[in-house]
Amino acid sequence: MARDNNTDGLSRRDFLRTAGIGFASLAAGGAGMLPTLARAQQKRSDAPMFRLGIRGTRGYWPILPGDETFVQRMEVELLAGTSSHLETYPGSHIAPTIRAVRGELLEAQYTNELYDPSIIHWHGLEVSERNDGLPQQAIQPQEHYNYSFVINNRAGTYWYHPHPDGYTGFQVYYGMAGAFVVSDPQEQALPLPRGEFDKVILLQDKKFDPNNQFLYGVNPFIGTMGDRVLVNGLPDYVLSAATRIYRLRILNGSNARIFKLKWSNGLPMIAIGSDGGLLEAPVQKPFLMLSPGERVEIWADFSSLPVGAEFKLLSEAFDGAQVGFGSGTQNGTAIDAMRVRIDRQETETLTLPTSLV
User: Fold this and answer.
1) How many CB atoms lie within 10 A of CB 218?
2) 112 pairs with which residues across the strands?
3) CA-to-CA distance for 223 and 229, rounded, in angstroms?
4) Can you tell me the distance from the alpha carbon of 354 to that of 114, in angstroms, rounded to the nearest whole number?
5) Could you tell me which of 148, 18, 156 has the C-alpha nearest to residue 100?
6) What is the pLDDT of residues 53-69, one digit of tens each?
């Protein structure tokens, strides 16, 4: 069964003709368009398009040595577009990063192959109600949900994850989360790190039982806390870095943990972007706080460090959030997020801009 929901007012037949797709699960039919919707269709057809197939799946994945861990995943397939639209993480169960340009048209079909209701929400993106992935739009196992919307957001770091009522925390905790990065000409004109020096760092704290299974404690008031951090779905993550400047897009995909982030070697934390995109100017702080769902982009300058240097991205202990979580772990406790290893010498030409957007 497929939900006919993704046309922003277009009929199903008009949508299929315009998009050039014919999902086998869709039936023909639908009412005609109003003139105003016909104009909207023309704007959409002029936009460059990429198309994704997303499957919510379940299974076992090798995260730690020993027994494989039961996970839930968003498997994303690029059906039309360029390879730059998807950034995958080898060996990880986490969803790939979607990279798009403002003005592009995204078409996607989500197929629910889980045990429970599910729907995909585009966190932070400006979309119509029918494309938002609201709890009341959740689909049952073996159903489909179709999306079609133009990327209207300014350049920034957003994310996508399930949003069904009563199942959101569980599905995200078990692995259904991914970053959504938007660029635009104004941002591209700035002297910022690009390519391999522009990295997503998706942080999720987890707790494992002796058989390597996730421990998820259902508590609607305080959430679930872990005692170790996975970065982009990988344990004991080490960022292999050059003597260069990096743009690190840090996303807190945790269920409840608040991070107080700082570098162990005293490097400054320089924020250049937040949930809504780039800041007007860089902001330097001794640490950065990041609650679940929040994002921050930092200018990480490793250019003056010697080859062989190793240090950590830490979450320091802090007061004010010490609510018990049943397992003995409390919010505000210290935890290591990841390690950085400087393993090669390269020449850097970038300098920190004094103004951004």
Assistant:
1) 9
2) 56
3) 16
4) 48
5) 156
6) 999 999 999 999 999 99
